[in-house]
């Protein structure tokens, strides 16, 4: 058959189905049509597939060689090159070689990309040295599959402006606790995503979401898009600017994704699985982040219905979609949200309460098996969900004024609109 371009045949042919192998060069048993004594002269090409690509542009698999199970030296793939109509054996590719121990052997599968020099070197090194380096690489990989990058997002860079001051202090508290936890990692760093940085992250991850980010008027939804894009690009740890760290999360080796399951009512427990957005940790290019952005885009295009806030809904749906493929999603850890912890004394009776007024001052993130609290979902003094007493007084005053104005406009009366004690409580 007509020989294919070298790069194309390398990308499209799988080892187990297509390659036909000869015995080792030292055995000297190559068929004459495979090149015979020429193989030995060309064995230097085993160390560099790239060199083979550059020197000989037309390569095809030698189709008439019977595949044999070898003894202790492994397998070598024989390529035949065609030049001006004559087939000449050019060399032996080291990537296809497998080291055998006894009667067992491992088959290397060709990847879509050009192999690195480390891969080529490992294919030809002695088995004892290779196993030592493999153990070292595995130990490094198990150290952490999630890079120690801390992400925050806000419309402006609070680390530079230091405003709002309460949020700035909380960011510094979060940063300090985690950097202390990672004190042996010199690569740990903090990234703050303002609107400009968010746009750059979205362009890298999913450009179709950029127009929706620009048109979105709800700040929380803009943050949802931004964090998904940033975590997909580089991986790392994301924290809301108003989440309060009680104990830093220490993820086990090999964890590739972590978040918090939102507490839901019992009657809705089978209908939805929402992920709490205040804390997310992900490895780069993780399938959960990819699926999350896909659901976000579907929502903005009118093809997906939410079952809660945009961020928690799309991340939950993305998690469920990615979980259908266990090999892709990898090892995960999901914490639990617990609302109004002070009303549930059986959990953490000794946990100090936050002294604020609002719906969410006593919401926590915990691990029920470990019985350990990691976060308060809100700090006191930021937003109506958890206000100081002074803020609450001003908030109620403004609420009364707004209702009075609405009532005066509707009924052409003033104070008579807001006399009901029930309305006062509302």
Key features of this structure:
3 domains, 15 strands, 4-stranded antiparallel beta sheet, disordered N terminus, alpha+beta, 9-stranded mixed beta sheet
Describe this structure in words.
- GO terms for molecular function: mannosyltransferase activity.
- InterPro entries: Glycosyltransferase_domain, GlycoTrfase_DXD_sugar-bd_CS, Nucleotide-diphossugar_trans.
- One of its GO terms (biological process) is mannosyl-inositol phosphorylceramide biosynthetic process.
- Residues 113-137 are annotated as: Disordered.
- Residues 113-135 have a biased composition (Polar residues).
- By secondary structure, the protein is an alpha+beta fold.
- It has 3 domains: 6-143, no CATH class; 149-346; 389-425, no CATH class.
- It has helices spanning 6-12, 15-18, 38-41, 49-55, 117-124, 127-143, 158-161, 165-181, 195-205, 210-215, 219-234, 287-300, 310-323, 326-329, 389-411, 421-425; strands spanning 21-22, 59-61, 76-83, 86-93, 100-101, 104-105, 149-153, 189-193, 236-239, 244-245, 255-261, 275-282, 331-338, 364-367, 372-376.
- Strands 8-7-9-12-11-13-14-15-10 form a 9-stranded mixed β-sheet. Strands 1, 2, 3 and 4 form a 4-stranded antiparallel β-sheet that branches. A two-stranded antiparallel ribbon has the order 5-6.
- Strand 5 (100-101) and strand 6 form a beta hairpin.
- Helix 11 (219-234) packs antiparallel against helix 12.
- It starts with 5 loop residues before the first helix and ends with a helix.
């Amino acid at each position: 058959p007509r020989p294919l371009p070298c790069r194309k045949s390398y990308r499209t042919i799988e080892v187990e189905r297509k390659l036909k192998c000869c015995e080792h060069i030292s055995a000297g048993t190559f068929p004459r049509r495979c090149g015979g004594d020429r193989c030995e002269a060309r064995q230097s090409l085993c160390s560099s597939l790239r060199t083979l690509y550059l020197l000989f542009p037309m390569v095809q698999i030698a189709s008439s060689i019977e595949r044999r199970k070898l003894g202790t030296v492994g397998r070598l793939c024989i390529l035949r090159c065609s030049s001006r109509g004559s087939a000449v054996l050019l060399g032996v590719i080291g990537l296809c070689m497998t080291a055998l121990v006894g009667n067992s052997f491992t088959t290397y599968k060709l990847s879509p990309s050009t192999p690195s020099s480390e891969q080529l070197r490992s294919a030809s090194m002695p088995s004892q040295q290779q196993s030592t380096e493999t153990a070292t690489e595995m130990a490094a990989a198990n150290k952490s599959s999630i890079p120690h990058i801390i992400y925050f997002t806000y419309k402006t860079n609070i680390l530079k402006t230091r405003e709002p001051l309460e949020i700035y202090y909380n960011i510094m508290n979060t940063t300090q606790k985690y950097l202390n936890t990672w004190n042996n990692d010199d690569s740990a760093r903090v990234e703050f995503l303002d609107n400009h940085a968010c746009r750059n992250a979205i362009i890298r991850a999913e450009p179709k979401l950029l127009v929706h980010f620009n048109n979105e008027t709800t700040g929380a939804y803009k943050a949802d898009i931004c964090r998904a894009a940033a975590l997909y690009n580089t991986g790392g740890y994301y924290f809301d600017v108003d989440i309060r760290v009680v104990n830093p999360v220490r993820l086990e080796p090999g964890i590739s994704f972590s978040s918090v399951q939102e507490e839901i009512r019992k009657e809705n427990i089978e209908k939805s699985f929402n992920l709490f957005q205040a804390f997310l940790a992900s490895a780069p290019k993780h399938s959960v982040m990819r699926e999350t952005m896909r659901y976000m885009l579907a929502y903005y295009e009118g093809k997906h219905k939410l079952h809660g806030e945009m961020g928690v809904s799309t991340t939950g749906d993305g998690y469920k979609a990615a979980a259908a493929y266990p090999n892709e999603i990898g090892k995960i850890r999901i914490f639990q949200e617990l609302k109004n912890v002070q009303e549930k004394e059986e959990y953490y009776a000794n946990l100090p309460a936050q002294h604020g007024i609002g719906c969410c001052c006593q919401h926590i993130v915990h691990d029920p098996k470990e019985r350990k609290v990691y976060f308060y979902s809100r700090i006191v003094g930021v937003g109506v969900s958890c206000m100081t007493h002074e803020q609450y007084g001003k908030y109620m005053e403004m609420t009364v004024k707004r209702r009075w104005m609405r009532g005066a406009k509707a009924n052409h009366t003033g104070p008579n609109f807001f006399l009901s004690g029930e309305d006062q409580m509302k």
